[in-house]
């Protein structure tokens, strides 16, 4: 069974943190409808979805990916880079505790889960405005016990590592090489996003289907040409808060 943990959109969602995009008005009703569509997509591909209640005091709390990093047999609670988000981890810990043993990062580390890309036994960590070297060091210590290697990856011009690169499977990555050096991922088959769709690299591969934002049709066509099954989701309102398809769930493979 694949379990997907999600959280309903906060009523204060319009007060979200934004870093690399201009702040835009957010339609809360539409954002909630899009999130419901996202949940439906996860269910369509066979996930069992847990929807946590909204957290009014945390505008960005719908983006549950940033509060924890999931590994087979355990999870690591993060320490988000934005101070306004650090309270989000408490309820995520409560949701995860019945399923996995938990470990935690501590100050001075800051880490958003959107900066962590795990492929096999290698954990790539984006060095971003939200994630620092102290987090890389603490992750290295925690994960070495489980046989993982940690590799820091510099970023340019984007919020998170998964804004620039995500895994399609164990051998192939979808990447925007203008935001991350493709040389960091030597040995993988790299599929570049269309040059007109710089935000198109964020996708969620789950249960044989690649979930993608509907905003990037040229990149989707490239995926389909390579034989991937693609499911498109409208997340345009969530994107106004620098959110994307990986951000809104924590995936636990049974």
Rg calculated over all Cα atoms: 17 Å
Distance between the termini: 5 Å
Q: What is the percent of helical residues?
A: 10-25%
How many beta-strand elements? Answer: 15
Class from helix and strand fractions: alpha/beta
Strand content: 25-35%
SSE string, helix = H, strand = E? Answer: EHEEEHEEEHEHEEEEEHEHE
Overall pLDDT level:
98
Residue ranges: pLDDT <50 for 5 or more in a row?
none
Q: Could you name the CATH class?
A: Alpha Beta
Count of helical regions? 6
Could you characterize what this model shows?
Helix content is 21%, strand content 26%. It has one domain: L-arginine/glycine Amidinotransferase, Chain A (5-stranded Propeller), CATH 3.75.10.10. The longest helix has 17 residues. It contains 6 helices and 15 strands. It has 254 residues and is of the alpha/beta class. The protein starts with a strand and ends with a strand. The mean pLDDT is 98.
Could you name the key traits of this structure?
L-arginine/glycine Amidinotransferase, Chain A, 6 helices, 254 residues, alpha/beta, globular, three-stranded mixed beta sheet
Summarize the SSE layout with pairings.
Elements: E1 2-7, H1 28-44, E2 47-52, E3 68-71, E4 74-77, H2 89-96, E5 102-104, E6 116-119, E7 122-127, H3 133-144, E8 149-154, H4 161-164, E9 165-167, E10 172-175, E11 189-192, E12 203-206, E13 209-213, H5 217-225, E14 230-233, H6 236-239, E15 250-253
Parallel strand pairs: 1-2, 4-5, 7-8, 10-11, 13-14
Antiparallel strand pairs: 1-15, 3-4, 6-7, 9-10, 12-13
